[in-house]
Amino acid sequence: MTKGYRLGGISMVLVMWTLGFFYVSSVSGDGLELHFYRNSCSNAEMIVKELMKPIILTDPTTSAALLRLPFHDCQVDGCDASILLRDVEGSSRMETESDKNFGVRKLETIDMIKTRLEEHCPQTVSCADIIQLAAREAIYLTGGPYIEVLTGRRDSYSASRERADNQLPLANISIDDCIQIFRQKNISLEQGVALLGAHTLGITHCRNINERLRPASDPTLSPTYSLALQTICSNPLLSDTTFSGNDATPISFDNHYFTDIQNGRGLLKIDSEIARDPRTMPFVIHFGRDKKLFFDRFSSAFLKLSKA
To answer: Quick one: CA dihedral 248, 254, 258, 259, positive or negative?
Structure first.
């Protein structure tokens, strides 16, 4: 099954070696622990940290892209870096070919970090862990909390567009379906709302919000916000390239997202719904008032998601 596949620029021979390494080295039930590489590659987390600083400084939009990666990786058969897999024989069966992974980018950043780690600690640090560590730094470097990410994940050697199609949520996911996903991952409703606060970073393409704007505007959108979005997304032929910032501060990890969605500026359907549904509205209000509370709940939820 390893023939024909590459994980970014790293061959699957290396991935399979790494799988074996993790199998014999795991000490806990799920193979994850704090500072897993303290003996095998003691500088691994510091190397990721130092590489990430100039990347975010040079292109602040990278933070949102790298934060999105663990969500899309972990949702499909767990946190195993399968989203990075490429088929060098030209098949379109990879996860990135799924329409639900539209806009996923900066995979080359993970590959670059992996290449640098190979220079220091050959065949040691998994790409699955790099995805989590890079996301941790992206959050922190844009003003968010510093999350003590557990490490020790195993890399996958197979991927499937079909599995991504079936397991990733739709852009217009309902609140009930969203809550079901949280329950499956043992994430509380409060933590789930906090996870949606990841929308504080980045942008959303018009293709994912067009149905909220026409033929009639979604009544949960404020009139001025709806008009602004209709202007941005005026040409359906450009909906894959036109976009709007997720909140008022799309390159800062903060709690503005929660104040925005309370005022009719929820970009996605789920953003508007959690601000109005009685099950989730209290958490939205609390997080909008208390950034520290949001950071705390987001951190605990992120750790749960990263153990999938």
So the answer is: negative
CA separation for the pair 103, 71 (Å, rounded)? 13
Q: Cβ(62)–Cβ(104) under 8 Å? A: no
Among this protein's residues, is 120 annotated catalytic?
no
CA–CA distance, 132 with 282 (Å, rounded to integer): 29
Give whole-number Cα distances, 188 to 130, 195, 304, in Å: 26, 10, 10
Q: How many helices (H) and strands (E) does the chain have?
A: 14, 7
What 3-state class would DSSP assign to 86?
Answer: strand
Indicate the pTM of the whole model.
0.89
111 half-sphere exposure, CB direction, 13 A CA radius: 15
Cα–Cα distance for residue pair 114/56, rounded to 1 Å: 17
- Three-state DSSP state, 245: strand
CB 47 within 8 A of CB 117: yes
- Indicate which residue of 72, 199, 205, 256 is catalytic: 72
Q: What is the pLDDT of residues 16-57, one digit of tens each?
A: 333 333 333 334 347 899 999 999 999 999 999 999 999 999
**DSSP classification of residue 219:** T
- State both tokens at 58: 């040079």
The encoded tokens of residue 145 equal 């909390």
